[in-house]
Design goal:
CATH architecture: 3-Layer(aba) Sandwich
CATH superfamily: Gcn5-related N-acetyltransferase (GNAT)
Order of helices and strands: HEEEHEHEE
Structural class: alpha+beta
Number of domains: 1
Largest sheet: 6 strands, mixed
Strand content: 35-45%
Shape: globular
CATH topology: Aminopeptidase
Number of strands: 6
CATH class: Alpha Beta
Helix content: 25-40%
Number of helices: 3
Length: 142
């Protein structure tokens, strides 16, 4: 579903993380099945905010979708953000039909749409921002 340009951005983020151990902007996790990477997530703290994080990318190979791999990756990110005293996790996605499953995924995991920027990506393709806030001092996420 991603364009070659988007795939290039993901590769750049991974290379930055792997080649610069001192950087703190991007953190990635992968899901493996039989030694093969089948899922990926990248997230990080948002500069100049008080404990806000962005979920930059999350995807699961189509052959492995529907097996809770995405849910597990998202849960690991939420645990890490909560453990780092993060206040909220934001994720942007497209308003177009191919991203309907992604929007459902976020809603099913407790994210609420908090912003819409009309025609952000291109005409007819708005940016939708979803957020999940974390309660500090409680063991569960809210």
């Amino acid at each position: 579903m991603f364009t070659s340009r988007e795939i290039g951005v993901v590769k750049e983020l991974v290379e930055t993380e792997l080649n610069d151990p001192k950087q703190r902007d991007y953190r990635s996790l992968v899901a493996e099945v039989d030694g093969r990477i089948v899922g990926f997530v990248c997230y990080g703290p948002v500069p100049m905010t008080d404990a806000t994080y962005d979920l930059y990318w999350i995807f699961v190979h189509p052959s492995y979708q529907g097996q809770a791999i995405g849910s597990t990756l998202l849960a690991r990110v939420e645990e890490a953000v909560h453990g780092a005293k993060g206040r909220m996790l934001l994720v942007d996605t497209s308003s177009t039909r191919p991203y309907l499953a992604a929007r459902r995924f976020y809603k099913d995991h407790g994210y609420r749409m908090v912003a819409k920027v009309k025609d952000y990506y291109r005409e007819g393709d708005s940016r939708l921002t979803y957020a999940k806030r974390f309660s500090q001092g409680q063991s569960s996420l809210s």
